[in-house]
Amino acid sequence: MHTCPVLDWEAAWHAALYGPSGFFARGEKPSSHFRTSPLVGPELAEALLTLLSRVDACLGFPPVVDFVDVGAGGGELAFAVRSLASGSLASRLRVTAVELGPPVELPGVEWATSIPSCVGLLVGHEWLDSVPCPVVTGPSADPWIERWWPSLEDGSMAEVGAPRDAAWAAAVASVRGAALAIDYGHLESSRRFTLTGYREGRQVEPVFDGSCDVTAHVAFDSCAEAAGGDWVLVSQRDALRALGVVGAAAGSGWDWLESAARAGRVAELRDPAGLGGFGWLLHGCGVAVADLMPALPPWRPDPAGFPVEE
Predict the structure, then answer these.
(1) Rounded to 5 degrees, what angle do the CA atoms 160, 24, 16 make?
(2) Could you tell me what percent of the chain has a pLDDT over 70?
(3) CA–centroid distance for 191 within its chain
(4) All structural domains of the chain
(5) Full-model pTM
(6) Which of 189, 225, 239, 287 is the most buried (most CB within 10 A)?
(7) Contact 123, 70 (CB under 8 A)
(8) From CA 266, how far away is CA 258, in angstroms rounded?
(9) pLDDT at 54 over 60
(10) For the stretch 263-291, what's the b/e string if a residue is b when 16 or more beta carbons lie within 10 angstroms of its beta carbon?
């Protein structure tokens, strides 16, 4: 892959995804190209509803409580949350899906092209990995690289995470309650160039012609520091268990079949070599993180690289 000026990389990446003939702008949905946690089953939405219920209680049960899904794709997660909500929360819940591409008609889901103010829970599920970044080749005097990628070797390439830091900080600033980023990523100790593409279930060479999704790992440590406040970074595997998403085959007949199917879905969501290896960056926004999530081991990136996307 040949090098280009820094601004050209970011502009080309943005056009490839969000320009007039961009991958997402023309209506492509992630579900057509790779498997994500909302597509596995309802369990992720169940976990997020548990988290939202804790946020709701900490906020004193406001008359309207928000669930904002940023980078919503086809709205699968937003619709699942809306469908599974029950009791008092369901009667007060406002679900907003934020997406630049064409919206999908889903009962109970409002669509927006920019992040609204949120009193409740904002979730960026595999959103930040699609925020375009500049790309540089070492050595580089870029301030972000000097702070967050100081070991960049001569001739090596790197994604500059500053636009993601700004996007996440702005999103967190719009929230009273909690903000959660769920994604694949890396830390300063494990930085590596990860720009890649996905098309029809396969990892492909990233090209900027709108024919594939273009994505790269999220620098969770820099995003966390940019947004500031009270935050924690844990694995999806640990977070789901802490939020009550467990499953084991039990019973007999149809009950056994249903519980076995759930156990299989939970195992996929918690697989440390796959979706379970995703990071969950949770910020409390006027709410203490300790009131939302118990103490868990800190997230560590999988050194093997990208989680498998099918």
Answers:
(1) 50
(2) 90
(3) 19
(4) 6-291 (3.40.50.12710)
(5) 0.92
(6) 239
(7) yes
(8) 12
(9) yes
(10) eebbebbbeeebbbbbbbbbbbbebebee
